[in-house]
Structure formats: C-alpha cells, structure tokens
Design goal:
Distance between the termini: 47 Å
Helix content: 40-55%
Largest sheet: 3 strands, antiparallel
Number of helices: 6
Structural class: mainly alpha
Shape: globular
Radius of gyration: 18 Å
Number of strands: 5
Length: 158
C-alpha cells in the first residue's frame, strides 16, 4: 500500500481476485472437466448494467403473475447471448477464460459445458442471499429474496 494510505490498483485487483477465488467451488461439467467457479453477485451485475433491459424488466415484474407472451427482437436475442457469455466468463475462476497464455478460449469450451455453467450461474443468481441477523448476534443467517433474483431464476429455467 502506498504511503498515502490509498490502495494501488494492483493491490485492489489482487485482493478482489483472492476474494473471488475464496468464494469459488469445484464444478464438474458434462464433458468430465472440473473447474473452479464463483457464484455471481446479483447486485454487482445490476449495478454494472450487464443485465439486458428486457431480462431486468421481466425479473422485476410481478413475481407470481403469469407473463404475457411478447416477441423478442433480434437485438434483444443478441443482448441475451452477450449476457450468457459474460456470465460464463465471470463465473469461471480456473482455468481462466481468455486468449492469453495459460487461458482457454471460450470457443474451445464445449457448448454443453458453457450451457451447464450458464444454468449453474443463473441458479446461483436466483438463490436467496444469506444475510447475518440485523442485531449482530451469531444466530442463523436470515434468507432474503429479491424480485430480481426470483425473476432471473424463472428466466433461466425457461
């Protein structure tokens, strides 16, 4: 850390990567490969604008009400495909996905494995988040669900 008490970008990046790796779990894929994958953080995805607007609107709509059929435009389909790709990339911790040395290109990952990772990540986004009790006691964590994660889980199942 610099002498001014402010973290450097490298230190911050390193801490972020270490935190992500500490959350990672082993995931066995349909191909037989085993990877390390970290569950995505719903709030991070919403705040970064990486969730397609159509998906976000559906996820935030009335939870149990039946959705009326709507046509999806070509651009919305491309948005959803980009979202799926980003979600897979963001979920895989090891081996790293990329085009550099020691990384695997997304195109080299079998489609069944990519689909499996995407579905796993969607379920992870859709699960209720555990929060410690508000009184700070060491009791059981309380489960909190949100309209976003509930709606996203419905989308990923369809």
């Amino acid at each position: 850390m610099p002498t001014n008490g402010i973290a450097s970008s490298d230190a911050w990046r390193t801490a972020s990567r270490a935190a992500r790796k500490s959350r990672a779990e082993r995931l066995r894929l349909p191909s037989g490969a085993t990877i390390l994958a970290a569950r995505p953080e719903p709030l991070e995805w919403i705040m970064s604008g990486r969730v397609p607007q159509k998906l976000l609107a559906a996820a935030l709509s009335n939870g149990g009400a039946p959705q009326r059929e709507t046509e999806i435009s070509r651009e919305e389909i491309l948005d959803l495909a980009r979202f799926a790709t980003q979600l897979v990339r963001a979920s895989v911790v090891e081996p790293a996905i990329g085009d550099g040395p020691g990384e695997i290109s997304l195109d080299e990952i079998p489609v069944k494995d990519r689909a499996f990772i995407f579905e796993w990540a969607c379920r992870a986004l859709g699960q209720a988040e555990a929060h410690p009790p508000a009184d700070g006691s060491a009791g059981a964590a309380e489960e909190v669900s949100s309209p976003f994660t509930d709606g996203l889980e419905r989308f990923c199942q369809e």
